[in-house]
């Protein structure tokens, strides 16, 4: 297996260590790094476990191990693992290991007495307590990081361009949201009696805001028209949505689009993703299953029909269109300013800061869907 320079550097770092973390930008080939490090370090009698977050990552991990000539004891989703599964493992590889502070993940990693290597593109969660636990697990000097600049220099990441669609007048929905949130918070108080009024209102405010974003006619029309326009140009379009019902409505309005989500049959979902990957399907509408592990280098345009403020998720999501592919000049992301709702606007500004940190070019457009 021919490794890129930074991949070989990571392999050399991992191989001698009992516990180590490898941080590689989305599209940098972290599964290849993990499998190649195993090929160097393991002995014939060693038992290898490879834990992932999604079924798609299980398939990718298995393919990487096969390419590296490594035979694992198992490659499985973390959700199906127990302490007994990892207790006898000599090498445990944990993909998307930024989830480690979660109880279900910590349960199986704590039981492993062997070597543990973690792979992730986004080690920081933004939660100080979770980040402290995460850093404490790996210890000092056991982390290697690859920069986006290193990956881009080798032509292994496309440059990013973000177009932020500005459709609303600032604050135009706030009165409606606040009135509805007052009623919703009273309902929530019966379900969450331990929460104070301020926290109940904030949660209700976000629930109402999200509903408004999902149902906003102008916003949805912009998603549909933008997708159609980019498909006419020959682009492969990925639309990320918050809810299955929202995604189905987009599919009903965009000819040739199909929906993929975690609750549909695995065979049908794999088929849709495979056709999107080979270009037969030009528009894939997906829920959170696209946050991690969706490897579709052909995807050139991402439309964030609904987003949030999580920097880690945003980097993962935008990374879906930053993989290089023949004919792809840039990875293009469409986002929304959401000026009409204060909470959504705040999150939009947070996303803009993440885009800047990632080095994407940013422009604002007053485009209104016809």
N→C terminal distance: 50 Å
As residue ranges, the low-confidence spans are: none
What do we call the CATH topology of the largest domain?
Rossmann fold
Strand content: 15-25%
The largest β sheet comes out as: 7 strands, parallel
Please tally the helical runs, counting DSSP H or I stretches of 4 or more residues: 14
What does the average pLDDT come to? Answer: 89
- What is the annotated CATH architecture of the largest domain? 3-Layer(aba) Sandwich
Oligomer description: single chain
List the helices and strands and how they pair.
Layout lengths: L4 H10 L4 E5 L6 H12 L6 E5 L2 H14 L5 E4 L5 H5 L3 E5 L7 H9 L3 E6 L7 H11 L4 E3 L2 H6 L6 E6 L8 H18 L5 H19 L1 H16 L4 E4 L3 H10 L3 E4 L5 H13 L4 E4 L14 E4 L6 H8 L12 E6 L5 H17 L2 E5 L5
Parallel strand pairs: 1-5, 1-6, 2-3, 2-4, 4-5, 7-12, 7-13, 8-10, 8-11, 9-10, 11-12
Describe the structure.
It is a single chain. The chain has helices spanning 5-14, 30-41, 55-68, 83-87, 103-111, 128-138, 148-153, 174-191, 197-215, 217-232, 244-253, 266-278, 311-318, 342-358, and strands at residues 19-23, 48-52, 74-77, 91-95, 115-120, 143-145, 160-165, 237-240, 257-260, 283-286, 301-304, 331-336, 361-365. With 370 residues, it is an alpha/beta fold. The chain folds into two domains: 5-153, 3-Layer(aba) Sandwich (Rossmann fold), CATH 3.40.50; 160-172 and 218-365, P-loop containing nucleotide triphosphate hydrolases (Rossmann fold, 3-Layer(aba) Sandwich). It has a seven-stranded parallel β-sheet, sandwiched between helices. Strand 4, helix 5 (103-111) and strand 5 form a beta-alpha-beta unit. Helix 1 crosses helix 2 and helix 2 packs across helix 3. The longest helix has 19 residues, at 197-215. The radius of gyration is 22 Å and the shape is globular. The protein starts with a helix and ends in a 5-residue tail after the last strand.
């Amino acid at each position: 297996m021919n490794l890129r320079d930074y991949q070989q550097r990571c392999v050399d770092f991992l191989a001698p260590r009992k516990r180590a973390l490898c941080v590689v930008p989305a599209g940098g080939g972290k599964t290849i790094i993990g499998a190649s490090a195993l090929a160097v370090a393991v002995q014939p009698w060693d038992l290898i476990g490879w834990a992932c977050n999604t079924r798609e990552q299980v398939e990718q991990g298995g393919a990487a191990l096969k390419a590296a000539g490594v035979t694992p004891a198992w490659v499985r989703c973390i959700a199906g693992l127990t302490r007994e599964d990892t207790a006898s493992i000599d090498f445990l590889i944990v993909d998307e290991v930024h989830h480690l502070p979660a109880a279900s993940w910590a349960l199986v990693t704590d039981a492993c007495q062997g070597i543990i290597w973690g792979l992730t593109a986004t080690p920081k969660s933004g939660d100080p307590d979770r980040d402290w636990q995460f850093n404490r697990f790996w210890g000092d000097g056991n982390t290697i990081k690859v920069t986006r600049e290193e990956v881009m220099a080798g032509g292994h990441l496309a440059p990013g361009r973000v177009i932020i669609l500005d459709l609303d007048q600032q604050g135009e929905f706030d009165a409606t949201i606040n009135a509805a949130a007052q009623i919703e918070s009273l309902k929530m108080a019966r379900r969450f009696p331990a929460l104070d009024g301020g926290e109940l209102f904030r949660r209700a405010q976000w629930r109402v805001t999200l509903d408004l974003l999902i149902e906003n006619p102008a916003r949805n029309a912009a998603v549909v028209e933008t997708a159609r326009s980019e498909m006419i140009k020959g682009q492969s379009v990925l639309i990320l949505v918050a809810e299955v019902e929202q995604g189905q409505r987009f599919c009903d309005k965009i000819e040739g689009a199909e929906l993929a989500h975690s609750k549909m049959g695995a065979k049908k979902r794999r088929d849709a993703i495979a056709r999107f990957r080979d270009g037969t399907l030009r528009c894939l509408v997906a829920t959170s299953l696209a946050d991690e592990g969706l490897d579709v280098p052909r995807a050139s345009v991402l439309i964030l029909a609904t987003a949030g403020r999580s920097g880690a998720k945003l980097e993962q999501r935008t990374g879906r269109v930053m993989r290089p592919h023949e004919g792809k000049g840039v990875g293009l992301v469409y986002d929304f300013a959401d000026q009409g709702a204060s909470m959504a606007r705040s999150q939009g500004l947070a996303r803009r800061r993440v885009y800047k940190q990632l080095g994407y070019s940013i422009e604002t457009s007053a485009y209104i869907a016809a």
